[in-house]
Amino acid sequence: MKSVSRLSSWKLLALVGAFACTMLVACGDDGSDVFLTRSDTESSDVSSSSAQSSSSSDRYSSSVRSSSARSSSSISVAYAEPCRDEYFDDCEYGTLVDERDGQSYKTVKIGDQWWMAENLNFAYLQPTETRDSSSFCYDDDALNCEKYGRLYLWGAAMDSAAIYSDDGIGCGYIHDCNPAERVQGVCPQGWHVPTRAEFMVLYESVGGYDDNVVAKKKLMAVDEWRDCGAGCTDSYGFTVLPVGYFDEKYEDLGSNALFWSSTPYDEGSSTDNAYYMYVNFYMGFGTADKDDANSAKSVRCLKD
To answer: Residue 152 forms beta bridges with which residues?
Structure first.
């Protein structure tokens, strides 16, 4: 795998006391990854079906924008009661089949949203100017892809090369892009890369701003996280796994989960900043400015 010439570094974002704001994360890059031209693959080749319908990282920027999800998004979301614990499971599940490669994914309904209950594992291999691929397995180990899904550059998550749709065309480092309100991106047809606001709806649905410390644990997989003990309950079947991320090297397996959104930080300008959702036992959701949009993170698709 080729490496990016320049990648921004993070400093640890310290959160004090029990108050942890419901946030998504803005990110940017000083590197030079640019997606190449569109391939000959046509969007008509893609279809899907669905049934029913801590952090050990010290790489966070010291420049932080922070406010609560409720105040920043002005959303009002009904609380969804937990649907599972160690003794019962009453969650509403379905199945998504990605007809591009035949892979099947568990899905789950939380509030009014249908989510993939697993990380996407579609091999989006479009090269960049400095890399021979744009999605990766942690530690370059195919077994990690099977368990955790793939890690995607933001341009790959957005399908910047417009292989499957034009929704996020050009969205990558130093490319002006105005993504559609709903971006299919790397997701199967009928599903899309969540916006920042849609992630906030999820977080509010499980208690978010009012119950941040507990809410994050209710989204995290049981017996997968370091130092989590009995705290992680996966009470909604969302099953966040601590796959970590890639930024010059693979980091934080067992400690972090980061999910790209389709929302640029500065819409209509160079897209070296994009929001992502950050889940960690110690931090929950936080914000860090000037992360690297060419680092690789996970993707969870949301049903259209």
So the answer is: 135, 297
